[in-house]
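Dig into what follows:
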Amino acid sequence: MMSQSSGRRGIAWAIIGGLVLIAGTVAIIVSAILAQPAPTPTDTPTASSTPEPTASEQPDGTFVDPTAADRGWTPEPITTGADTYIRAALAAASTFDTTKSTREEWLDYLDTWFTPDTRFTSEADQLAAMTDSQTELRQGVVLPQEEWDSLAGEDGRVVAAVTGDIADVPVTDDPSGDMSIGTADVTLTFTRSDGSGGETSYDEQVRVSVQVLCGAASVPTPDTGQHAGDCKVVRYFTEPLEP
């Protein structure tokens, strides 16, 4: 009986010793974990703190000539989207600053938006049609010279913006299907010097139509990020066209 009791006591002490050893090991591990330094917060912004991009942060290539805005003009977008391009083209035909450019400089800039009319079979006819469209823009669409001069005498400028939807008008004799005519209401905001160091502004409403080509046959502006297939102007109309 004595030897069995001694054996049980030996087993009990062995179990107790094992538990003590385990507890000590756990304590060491916990201490090591607690001793580690807390992770340093990263500088990665959360979705709520990330600033929204502004117009000046647009990626390179968004516009044919981003510096056009510095001269008071509408920058020509690089896009294959007809609606986006039509809105910009309609605004461009009435956006200028007489203190930053001459009328002829502005019109020369608008000439760079044009592409030949591919409905004509020969290259000579296409170029002749484009020249006619540029002449039509000068003589029947944009602000006449005498009104420009009057506005320039008061350091005037105009900013145009499309308001509302674009009305699509079918293009005749276009087998490619890449041409479209858009008509929209445009608000022109005139700003003039009041002669005493201040300015006065007022709005005028017009309705304008433009024909664009957004297809492989479009001719990009040389030495720019524009490519064949990007939208270009074919023609502005002296009177608005409706569906």
Observations:
- The first strand starts at residue 96 and ends at 97.
- Residues 116 and 130 are 5 Å apart (CA to CA).
- The chain has a mean pLDDT of 82.
